[in-house]
Amino acid sequence: MSRKKGLCASGIGGQAVLEGIMMKNKDLYAVAVRKPNGEIEVETEEYHGVAHGSVLTKIPFVRGIFMFLDSLILGMRTLNYSASFYEDEEAKETKTDKVADKLFGDRAEKVFMGLTVAISLVIAIALFMLLPYFLSTVFEKYVRNTSLIALIEGAIRILIFLIYVVAISAMKDIKRVYMYHGAEHKCINCLEHGHLLTVNNVKKSSRQHRRCGTSFLLFVMFVSVILFIIIRVENPIGRVALRILLIPVIAGISYEIIRLAGRSNNVFVRILSAPGMWLQKLTTKEPDEDMIEVAIKAVEAVFDWKAFLGVNDEP
Description:
four-stranded antiparallel β-sheet; 315 residues
């Protein structure tokens, strides 16, 4: 039996869902869910992104925009799938459901999904982009330096984000999601550090990972501060418009940083990744063995980890 030595990026990523894990490898993704009866249900499908096959997905600083949108869409889809196992079986079809079925037919679910993603984006932009800006304008009476105002806005943005993370972590269901989040990271870390994918090895692995979405969002905060210092508009309406228009640029830059962090282990990258790794102590929790089993099932459905590790015989 042989296995790889040292850190080696696997290319797989994932997301915690309700009582389960989603793992994605290229165009293939799997959702493993621990059902109420204790059994593990695994569904494997292909997902082709919004710009699938386009050269745009290969251009640095542009591809990140589409990767971000794809993660939102797939994340919402898999979260709804996992939640379906815990819905009230006696729930009746609502009037809204009936109207949607008449208007959109088989496309009703996709339409609702699109609306949900759009509404989520609007709320996120309002909470994490526009609200910090309006709060920072209070300080303009006392601070004349525009760069300092931009730093204050950035500090408010990060503070709101941290409050949000801490607040939702107090919810019972979210705590379990964070535990599954930890299981997802532990599985990937286990493989990328050259260890066989067993429950015991996964338990010993770190629950922090540099390619985590939490780290990505923190990079978004930091990149936005830098861009808003460099790119300035005097008109208040223009400032608001700028913060919305620069979101794709911020996402594109942040994606390249997180991509670099997942493929390199030099001192600069470790320093750059440190704040996100610290924040993951809040967004990940230690999973139990049942959760780790679910995560392993999700990995095995989309990724040949034995070939990746160069295992020649059964462990």
